Amino acid sequence: MRKCKICGAKIPVGAPCCPQCGAVDLQKEHFDGHHVFQDSLDHMSGNPYEEDGYAPEDIRQNKGMALLSYLGILVFIPILTSRHSPYVRFHANQGLLLFISSTLLQILTRFLHKLADLSFLFFGFGLASKALNLLSLLFLLMAIWGVINVCSGQAKRLPLIGKIRLL
Questions:
Q1: What is the rounded CA–CA span in Å between residue 73 and residue 146?
Q2: pTM to 2 decimals?
């Protein structure tokens, strides 16, 4: 018996997906028993918690909840209501990372902006605040990319922060 890479449940021999969470089993055995496809996927991504390992039915039923993951504080709705879906859990993790990162960036930007207002002599605080405002545009682009991934039924990690797993 094999273990599910998503939830850890035991997968019966010959089962096409996990009986517990519905994740599709990506392990295609070679004739000598070596898991060639799974090994190459793990080697390329370093994380089996992504890409095409989700049941099409799970994706179809939960696109709406996954979409909420990239809409700021609304990320908490799928986190609290759809813990049974590996597809939603993946996107909720990505959305939570994006929400935390962008919130910390906004706090830092406001702090530097206040420092720039207080100290007229040091020009660097104002420049740093403007640079961080430009960086917040990157977070907006990552959120748009996440929405596009959800709408197309994909599960791809976000750049820079996508490798971190909180959920």
A1: 15
A2: 0.65
